[in-house]
Amino acid sequence: MRAWSAPEVPRLPGTGLPLRVYDTAGSEVRPLAPGATATMYVCGITPYDATHLGHAATYLVYDVLQRVLRDAGHEVTYVQNVTDVDDPLLERANRDGEDWRELAQRETERFRGDMEALRILPPAHYVGAVEAIGLIVALIERLQDKGATYDIDGDLYFSVASAPRFGEVGSFPYEKMVELAKGMGGDPDRPGKKDPLDPLLWLAQRPGEPGWDSPFGRGRPGWHVECAAIALEHLGDTIDVQGGGTDLVFPHHECGAAHAEVATGAWPFARSYVHAAMVAYRGEKMSKSLGNLVFISALREAGNDPSAIRLALLAHRYRDAWEWSDAEMAAASERLARWRDAVSRPSGPSADALLARVRERLADDLDTPSALLAVDRWAREAVTTGGRDESAPGLVCELVDALLGVRL
Length: 408
Ligand code: 5CA
Ligand code: ZN
Known about the structure:
By secondary structure, this protein is of the alpha/beta class.
């Protein structure tokens, strides 16, 4: 699929610091330490009711992560999927009497527009589940060859018992995994399953639902195998970063890792599992199923500058869950105005220490709130005491653009 166009990223003087991030599987902050080219797979949207602020907050995390890696001299190969056929999408299309393909196309287009406006770096490979059916079928065949699959009434399941390290991504107690699977499209109670946690690989076609021919009959792919197949195809057996919101740790990333492990024999599938905390609204996780959504498109249409939207999101640490309120937008717009005022002056205090500080804060597990505070301090000084450095306002514009994606 077509992604969206890439924003310019200025090159900054010197080199950024090596990034340390929290790895969910290891439960600690540690160096990411990729090679010359870092590989990153971030789970994409299921295209309906996108793009809300929660989605944007999550994709912004991997955008800043990439900016930090690039500043430290790495290339990044970034892959993202679109779950353009799955139960919730089909249910929504059904509810609204709309063709599921049209719904997916329209919402994917809206997402592209929002990502572009927010100046989010696009993936090199943007891959829909539908266009990846061949890859998914090939991965399921590999799993079949390893004896890791079984059939219930024509539906194909993956046996988690075949993956020796199943459970190591999320480290949840068994009962918790059952509960999480139930809430995220799993079917732990289905009779005939060898283990309640076994995920679906291929669902035999149901009346009125789409299906594709395959060696296991006509049907459609399960969710976890979709991401595993796309990541393995475009990034290889081991990737540096698997990204997505914390709601994807289990079962999605656990099962994806298990599929990859059984198919390739390699472990870990991802060297770092980097998860973004959930954004809430009106007391609950912002979610399509609850409908408590704030859309990026609505914020844009209301006249909010996309750079202010970025600042509103970057004011929160990605690992801390938080709740959106309208005051966030006003505070971010004020901050943007203050920064713009400061860089509009012909000179200011030196920005060398600011660049070092922003690099240092971002390299420490993407501490964006502290990076913003450092820019605040420089801007306050520029406006109150001023400074003689004529290159400083320009350098601040560039560093804020390159590392935070904010255009002043
Ligand atoms: N298509 C799958 C991934 S393969 C999916 O989860 N799609 S989604 O549209 O439901 O979510 C897209 C991304 O946004 C996921 O990484 C998810 O974790 C994240 N996300 C969803 N809701 C929120 C929220 N309230 N706050 C932060 N991130 C969220
Ligand atoms: Zn995914």
